[in-house]
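Hi everyone, sorry if this is the wrong subforum. Our group has a chain we'd like a structural model of before ordering constructs, and none of us has done structure prediction before. Sequence below.
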Amino acid sequence: MKRQIFTAEHDAFRETVRTFLTKEVLPHYEQWERDGIVSREAWRAAGRQGLLGLAVPEEFGGGGNADFRYSAVLAEEFTRAGVSGLALGLHNDIVGPYLAGLSTPEQKRRWLPGFCSGEIVTAIAMTEPGAGSDLQGIRTTAEDRGDHWLLNGSKTFISNGILADLVVVVARTSPEGGAKGLSLLVVERGAAGFERGRNLEKIGQKSQDTAELFFHDVRVPKENLLGELNGGFVHLMTNLAQERMGIAVAGIAAAEHLLEITTRYVKEREAFGRPLAKLQHVRFEIAEMATECAVTRTFLDRCIVEHADGTLDAVHASMAKWWATELQKRVADRCLQLHGGYGYMAEFPVARAFTDGRIQTIYGGTTEIMKEIIGRSLLS
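Answer:
Right subforum, don't worry. Here is the predicted structure as tokens:
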């Protein structure tokens, strides 16, 4: 079915993204995978190409366009290219709304130009060793010391953790437990007491630097408070829908791409003297995956449009995230199986897609958390 949600401007942007990937990313990606980190030059190249800060006002060097469909194009093309290491989606769609929407005029002048140029790489630090999807379990604390906050605690599984020059840290600024008393503090590279642990070795997304972060009596200036004091939980809940939409968009794009390459493979690969595509079981597998992708795509495109219009609620974003990522996981497994032994070889795209995509049902809120959000909305 022909997609109806994009304009000629979106199509032109898609070509820009594809050109960027061809010139600036794909020639270097295998080296980045071996290194376990992407080059900072790639971030600067993305900035020069106008791929950073899409929704940031033009006065700060951004694109000045909050239309989420541009972010969707970026996520789709990066997913199809299999280059999850360069986490522009994290920078633009997860950290970006906090900086653009909550910053004071002074903070905007200080941070946003570098954010858009690629000179400042960002991360957000929520997850802790003892608190994953449960944000109310956060133990990192920030004590009010007059002209600064004294930050102590640790975070783990932080994407862009090694490269990040600016980290939005979720910390407890009040002894009150639960969801109350959380605030967002911005910690900048070089702050005394801010230490990075090891670049964590993962089963997939090898070039995406994911790290442990440690804060030992870090003096965070009062002017680095982002948003309202003790309003962090509300800020997080407001912006999580976009994070989940970005993950969902990547999920359906990955499933569709896997279906495409597997369809080509079974047409070309022969077994028992004829192409795999001639086997009824294989045709049924392709038919089932194609139908599931088509149905999911219809729902996701509706969600993309509603989010671009500002009308998508958290429940439907959770539905999109749950359904699209679980579909991605199923399709990756079935497509690998259809590739047989070759699917287990790292040189085949399906193998990398299988390991790179497995995290999709976990980060941004697990599938179980998504179901809890949906169920609670229907039954409370």
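For your construct planning: The chain has a mean pLDDT of 96. The chain is about 50% helix and 15% strand.
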